[in-house]
Specification:
The chain has 331 residues and is α+β, with helices and mostly antiparallel strands. It has nine helices and twelve strands. It has one domain (22-328): Glutamine Phosphoribosylpyrophosphate, subunit 1, domain 1. 40% of the residues lie in helices and 23% in strands.
Length: 331
């Protein structure tokens, strides 16, 4: 009996030491687009950097304590959905009706299970609904009223649509509606908050996870849905390969299945994460006429943040490393 107890204790000690020696990493983004110093200004620059730092710290604390990549991804995105600075959750850009219409997805690299919700208007944290869709249903994607009924049945917090609308978004909406009653998406391309929020993580057990959340394109019509809730387009995770989250002009990411394209170039073409991502962003996406970016982490803890726009709100931190926060293209 004593020998078995001693063996169990030694096994536990070995496993604990093994976990503590494993690398982990966390990468986040808050959207890509025309983001320039003179437009953002020092005060807003500081606000965004602080928010990115705090979001990163939220997920890093989970990974550092031995938590899962999935939990880290969800916690980071919840933080960013709750922040009025980003185009997701509270603070999301408005559609042609002046309503925030939200999409989110999450993917577990262990078994490639995934969940997503799209075109929802009352779920406080769409990323939570996406995770519950993955874990408590046999579906991957739920939309609109159906997704909202599911979230309510699961006990998630439901809010009035007005909750998501900040004064800054309301002011932007009024201005652009006066300029362009056609509701075209062109104006959105020059707006600093163009894009999504996303997070990818590798935990100390070698598991990968990815998640993405967005308010989509400004002035969108007809319940338009972009790439963020589409697995393989805006979100992808596969153990042993990589985890990815996209931001940008979603139609191009859907057409090119761009998140999966990066993973496929790594898995079947032998490319590194950085090289695969660079080819997809600066060749494939650009050749199609699209703009945006990607963040990724591979199974070894290598990270990459690439984009073909003026800037991308982004940050990463590896085990025992310092947080790195960047905004502009020349950083």
């Amino acid at each position: 009996m004593r020998i078995r107890t001693l063996f169990a204790l030694l096994s536990l000690l070995f496993y604990t030491q093994l976990l503590s020696s494993q690398s982990f990493a966390l990468v986040i983004h808050g959207g890509a687009g025309s983001i320039q110093r003179e437009d953002l200004g020092p005060a807003r620059d500081s606000l965004y950097r602080k928010a990115l730092q705090e979001a990163l710290a939220t997920g890093y604390a989970i990974l550092d304590s031995g938590g899962s990549a999935l939990d880290a991804v969800e916690s980071v995105i919840v933080y960013m959905e709750n922040s009025p600075l980003f185009n997701a959750g509270r603070g999301a850009i408005l559609n042609s009706e002046g309503i925030a219409e939200l999409d989110a997805s999450i993917m577990d690299g262990r078994d490639m299970n995934a969940g997503a919700v799209a075109s929802v208007r009352s779920i406080k944290n769409p990323i939570k609904a996406a995770r519950l869709a993955m874990e408590r249903s046999s579906y991957v994607l739920m939309v609109a009223d159906g997704a909202e009924h599911f979230a309510k049945d699961q006990g998630l917090e439901i809010v009035e649509p007005e909750y998501f609308i900040t004064p800054a978004r309301r002011e932007w909406y009024k201005k652009v509606k006066m300029k362009d009653e056609r509701g075209a998406g062109r104006i959105m391309l020059s707006h600093p908050a163009f894009g999504t929020v996303g997070c990818v993580a590798l935990d100390s057990r070698g598991n990968l996870a990815a998640g993405t959340s967005t308010g989509g394109r400004g002035l969108k019509r007809y319940r338009r849905v972009g790439d963020s809730p589409i697995i393989g387009a805006g979100t992808y995770a596969e153990n042993g390969v990589c985890a990815l989250s996209a931001t940008g002009y979603g139609e191009y990411y859907i057409r090119g299945v761009l998140a999966y394209d990066v993973a496929a170039r790594m898995k079947y073409g032998g490319l590194s994460l950085q090289d695969a991502m660079h080819e997809v962003i600066h060749q494939r996406l650009q050749d199609m006429g699209g703009t945006g970016g990607l963040i990724g982490v591979d199974s070894e803890g290598n990270v990459s943040m690439d984009f073909n726009t003026n800037g991308m709100f982004r940050a990463y931190r590896k085990k025992d490393g310092q947080a790195v926060v960047k905004i502009y293209g020349d950083e």
